[in-house]
Amino acid sequence: MNQYIIVGGVLILAWFLSRVTGIEQTNTDKISDTFTPEKPEKEKSGFSFIDDFSLQEQFLGEAAENNPGGKYGTLFKRIGEKYEVDPFLLRAISIVESAEGNFLVNNFEHSYGLMQILCKNDGDLDQYCKNELPAVPMFDEATPNKLLNDTIYNVKIAAQILKWNQDKFGFKRGVAVYNSWSARNAPENGPFPNQGYVDKVFTEYDRLRKQ
After folding, report:
1. Do β-strands 111-112 and 105-106 pair in parallel, antiparallel, or remain unpaired?
2. Which of 6, 21, 47, 74 is the 20 to 30 Å CA partner of 205?
3. What are phi and psi of 155, to 5 degrees?
4. What is the CA radius of gyration of the chain?
5. DSSP string, 136-151
6. Rounded to whole angstroms, how far apart are CA atoms 198 and 191?
7. d(CA 71, CA 180)
8. Per-residue confidence at 122, pLDDT binned at 50, 70, 90?
9. What is the C-alpha to C-alpha distance for residues 183 and 168, in angstroms, rounded to an integer?
């Protein structure tokens, strides 16, 4: 008799626990159906390709027909169009400056990334660069690490510098000034104190345009 009572008690307890678990699961399902956790706001970084076009990964490494080609073909094309600079020229500069190496560091010049952007600070990779580019306010956000790891940001900075240089100094001298500030005092079409650099850039530029 006692055995039947024990078995019956166990069955009742099992039924009760299954009901409680079912109610909890149902409530959980209802919560998950009606509540979606709010996604954190994307970090804002001046002009953003996330806002303008798409995620960074979609453009890096993408080369499409009628683009300047190469590893960053679409990137140069989009940024060149946005800032009204020749995308072939942007790529030519990247080839001469870094051989298109987006993690290149020039410790002597303290320049970083694909376009070798100069950063004046105390040498800390996470310290902000001194902004000596009033025409490029987004440079306020620059650190060596950002210039190395955010290739889109690196090229956008370069495009704005090149745009300002060419508007002020002319097409060819603007390229010379990109590499050396002293070239601003040279004749508009040269010769420049860094003539070798300018020749290399325009050799690559002509080659890219013929492809």
Report:
1. antiparallel
2. 47
3. -70, -35
4. 29
5. -GGGGG--HHHHHH-H
6. 9
7. 26
8. confident
9. 12
User: Before 134, cis peptide (omega within 30)?
Assistant: no
Non-local CB neighbours of 161 within 8 Å, separated by 6+ positions: 117, 133, 135, 136, 178
Neighbours of 131 (CB within 10 A): 15
Judge contact between 96 and 175, C-beta under 8 A: no
Domains of the chain in start order, with CATH, are 85-210 (1.10.530.10)
- What DSSP designation does 122 have? S
pLDDT per residue as tens digits for the range 35-92:
333 333 333 333 233 333 333 444 444 433 344 456 677 899 999 999 999 999 999 9
Return the sign of the alpha-carbon dihedral for residues 198, 199, 200, 202: positive
**Rounded-to-10 torsion of CA 181, 184, 189, 195:** -30
Q: pLDDT for 6-16, tens place per residue?
A: 444 544 545 54
Amino acid at 86: D
CA distances from residue 188 to 59, 90, 158, 176, 194 in whole angstroms, order as listed:
35, 20, 21, 10, 13
* Side-chain-side CA neighbours of residue 65 (13 Å): 0
* Residue recorded with tokens 């060419």: 166
Amino acid 132: pLDDT: 86
Which single residue is written with the structure tokens 């001298």? 173
Q: 47 φ, ψ to 5°?
A: -70, 140
Does this model's pTM top 0.85? no
